[in-house]
Amino acid sequence: MAEEKQPVAEEKPSLMASSLPSFNIWPPNQKTRDAVIRRLVETLSSPSVLSKRYGVMDTEEAASTARVIEEKAFLAASDMPPAEASDTAADDPVARGIETLQVYSKEISRLVLDAVKSRASSSENPQSSPLADDVAAPSEDPSQPSPVFSESSEN
Asked: Among the four 43, 94, 128, 150, which has the fewest Cβ within 10 Å?
């Protein structure tokens, strides 16, 4: 008779697992994306190490640039094919979400640098097109840099 009863300890893990709230790391909700945009505006429009080298943007320019940067980074991360995920992430949705979030973060960093460098070079060369147009123009081939951003990274 003792063999027929299931130990209580075995029932609790499945009960606990089903009662825990689940969350997704990716995609971020709109509130989180708006917070990223606000932080980008602050970064682009406030004195910092970045602004000492490339200049400070006014709040309006920073806001439009931040929206474009966040949108492009979100699309780049969302379009990441599963083949690019590590073996662990392919089987684990949380690990996949973390890797996608890392792509999003790196893309934001890359786009911020591209935007401020482009702005700095366009202020030196008045013939250049406005920053928002440069950042918003999608590249035909994502693996190739936009002609506007083809400067060496040593600047």
From this structure: 150
